[in-house]
Amino acid sequence: MLTWPEFRQAIDAELEKLALPNLRFVYYTLPTWLAWWQQGQRGIRLYYVLWQWGAYQLAKRLHAREQFDLVQHLTLGAIRHASFMGRLGIPFLFGPVGGGEHAPWRLRRGYSLLAKIGDLARDLTNGWVRYDPLMRQTFRQAQWIVATSQQTQALIPQRFWEKVQIQLAIGITSQIATRPERRQPHQPFSLIYVGRFLEWKGMHLGLAAFALVLQQLPDARLTLVGQGPAEKRWHRLAETLGIAAQLDWISWVNQKDLAALYARHDLLLFPSLHDSGGMVVLEAMSHGLPVVCLDIGGPGRMVNALCGRVIATAGMKEADVIRQLGNAILLLANQPEYWEKLSQGAFQRVQEFSWPKVVRAF
Question: Which domains, and CATH codes, for the chain?
Answer without folding.
Answer: 2-166 (no CATH), 190-352 (3.40.50.2000)
